[in-house]
Amino acid sequence: MAEWEAVIGLEIHVQLRTRTKMFCGCELSFGDDPNVHTCAICLAHPGVLPTVNEQAVQYGLQIGLALGCEIAPRSIFHRKNYFYPDNPKAYQISQYDIPLARSGSLADVRIHRVHLEEDAAKLIHVGESGRIHGSGASLVDFNRGGTPLVEIVTEPDLREPSRAREWLQLLRSTIKAIGASDVNMEEGSLRCDANISLRPAGSDELGTKTELKNMNSFRFIERGIAAEIERQRDVLESGGVVSQDTLHFDPRDGTLTSLRSKEYAHDYRYFPEPDLVPLAPTEEMLARAREALPELPAERRERYRSELDLPEKQATQLAFAAGLGSYYEEALATADGASAKAIANWVTGDLVARLRDAGEDDCDPASSKVTPGAIASLAGLAESRAVSNNAAREVLSALVAEGGDPAEIVEREGLGQMEDSGELDEIVDRALEAEPDAAQKVRDGNMKAVGPLVGFVMRETKGRADGGEVTRLIREKLGR
Amino acid sequence: MSAGIRELTAAGAIGRIEAGELSPGDLRDAYAQAPDELGAYLERLSEGGEPAAGELRGLPVAVKDIFCTEGVPTTAGSKILEGYRPPYTATAVQRLADAGANVLGKTNMDEFAMGSSNENSAYGPVRNPWDIGRVPGGSSGGSAAAVAGRLAPAAIGTDTGGSIRQPASLCGIVGLKPTYGAISRYGMIAFASSLDQCGPLTRDVTDAALLLRAMQGADTCDSTCVGIEAGVELPSREDLKGLRIGVASDFSHQVEGVEPGVADVFERSLEMIRELGAEVGECELPHAEHGISAYYVLAPAEASANLARYDGVRYGLRADGDGELVAMYERTRAAGFGPEVKRRIMLGTYALSSGYYDAYYGRAQRVRTKIAEDFTTAFEGFDLIATPTSPSVAFELGARTKDPLAMYLSDYFTVPMSLAGIPAISIPAGLAEPPGGGPQLPVGLQLTSPAFTESSLLDAAHALERAVAFDGRPPTLGEEA
User: Fold this and answer.
1) What is the DSSP string of B26-52?
2) CB distance from A275 to chain B under 8 Å?
3) CB-CB: which of A45, A85, A269 is closest to B313?
4) Band of the pLDDT at B89, cuts 50, 70, 90?
5) Which phi-psi region, left, alpha or beta, contains residue A8 (left: φ > 0; alpha: ψ -120 to 50)?
6) Which CATH topology does B5-286+370-477 take?
7) For the whole model, what pTM was predicted?
8) A155 and A35 in one domain?
9) Of A8, B51, B172, B278, which one's alpha carbon is 20 to 30 angstroms from that of B18?
10) How do residues B370-418 score in pLDDT, each as one tens digit?
11) Total number of domains in chain A
């Protein structure tokens, strides 16, 4: 049986977080009563004209620059024509042959293009099917109509469903860092379609692709793509051919349904939008967009590697995962003595593992009870040996369960490292008496024999003693 | 009391008001009470309101029904907008009001400005005051007939390929199509957005300048509108000394069917231009003759998208679709649009279709660029270019309704300037007997100049207007009202 390689490209729509709509002065909203944010322009009354939202252009430029794209000196708006009640002009103003930005990359995925357009209104189909055909009636809420959108199209550089999900999370972090969007999949401010095709492994040609529409969570994206890959593999392995199609993934039962119908078969008759002049960003606009860019995940990874000396994998994890990086940054800012490396280890190691065990899907520590300050202070306690590693893990368990201040937990639970060296000294002496054979071996230079002696001390101190200090004391007393 | 009032030009009437010899109310009443036997108006407004202080204080203006007027029915001559009352007012109309003008009424027009005879109105034709058996031209036929027929001292219209200039020519008045981008298109119901431009239809050149001055200027609601940076001077020129006027004989004589009467008046006008001190020379516009072909691809293409919003969902006519969306769309549009509008929507949809775009829309755009370049080159050697405005005088009602191509040729001389986006004015140049005989009818002369040079264009037109001394009063009107 042939090995198949999946070829995946993503098409992402991001609702921009501007105050007003793309082409009129209506305010953006989410969750308000229907049709309260409308005007003659976004309802497409006769005679109205669009005017471009400057802030949307700024955000578009920032996203383009953040994705390493070339910004078009003059990009053009086009009309994309189709009749549908969610599209009051019967054309969407979008960009076509000359988008705002193109030819960029984010991590190892190339960006084909980034363009500006407007969102459609929201249709509510009354009736059982939930689709327009067969519904009793359809209602239109124009609040969303005209919301500024940035569309980002990748090259087909992804191969695995899980990588598609990870990459999309990186894109989300990047846009979130810019502040251009809420990038919330549930609320629809981040929407993703995937183009998927299969080809024999090693082939350079592209197979026939299908388009998977509107998956509204990271998990569904991964599952939907995986399901479609499997479907295509079944088709191909049973000797069939994949036909070009638009599909809907139903996360409830994992089924894929074809959306090919009259609604989706279109000749969009694109032509340049005569109501708008070409978009020619000035040097000043570009400079402003560059200046407004915060440190982006890719740059942050570089800084973590070169300045904080974190290993590549850890630097990537912290810089690219949504929320993790900013959590780490906050922890660093509140750190009092703990090293960046120690904090990084606690965040990416024990903390993430605990949260995953606790069933948190995206492992966002910011939404846990462990504050960045708490993790920094815990890292500091452990690093300064004020608590042993074992005790520190116990403190973390308490933090995950109920939050709080690590120093207080140490105090309350009596987990502090033994500070009274006289007490430790006395316990070490008892160990030497209790394990005379081991003591003699160490005295004779066999350092492996130190184990039973340390074990005795740890038992006696219930783990509060610092292993290194115990070993040092034993060697001192035995003259090694 | 009202004797002669309706014979006053806009500037004349405003002067009387300023001098305290005439009240804005009396001026308005003189027009409002005159019976509309031409079918020029679709809606006459009962109230003028208190006029704002400004250069046009007290001037009543007729407004083509393509301009949105808040709360006042606005149909663009179409059944599909029957009863539609816009929630806002067009910038051009608002600027007139801000300058002190008031709206007399909304004038009849070819449906969505598509036509050259006003016979494509869903609300009946308009009659030419010079001969009520003939058309006033179009698409701003109601505005032109109202001004010529003494039903308004001045009017505004829109010009996409000649819709101000051609009816002005056929009705013996002045019609100005300003540079594309001089006046805001906001609130002007779109036909072909890259060509549509608002402009005045007036009794003389000075009035055209007055209205242009009030309406022009950048508008935050229209990103294609930049205004005339240098402003608009009222014309004062009495000769044409030092000016070079180009005549493109190849273009002007190419078209079949320039009526002999029109050609004669044009030749006499050129003679007059020389007598006024200008130099008349031969200029080349090698691509202008292809203007009509390009125009009838580009304008319908844009129209097919602009008119797609009339779908029965939000306003205007809605036909019953028996519960089916597509049926509702189709029946609404089938019932709401007239034959010419449907023809152009189909033409434009076809021209933009996948696989045909380059052959039609793309090629037409290249022709448009060539025509614009022709004018740029021509203006290196000439200050103005003169052509007849229309190949014919006003034709009889029904004469061309069965022959769309003959109708389209009405715009032969006016379309190239629209494609180039440059200003052009039609002024009455004389009278000519129509083919087949009958009373003499007005003939217009068109002058065009580089973009945003309206002041010098108006100045030259003013000098020629004085020399022509055209009597713009249609003989059918009888004794002075």
Assistant:
1) HHHHHHHTS---S--EEEE-S---PPP
2) yes
3) A85
4) very high
5) beta
6) Amidase signature (AS) enzymes (3.90.1300)
7) 0.88
8) yes
9) B172
10) 999 999 999 999 999 999 999 999 999 999 988 888 888 889 999 999 9
11) 3
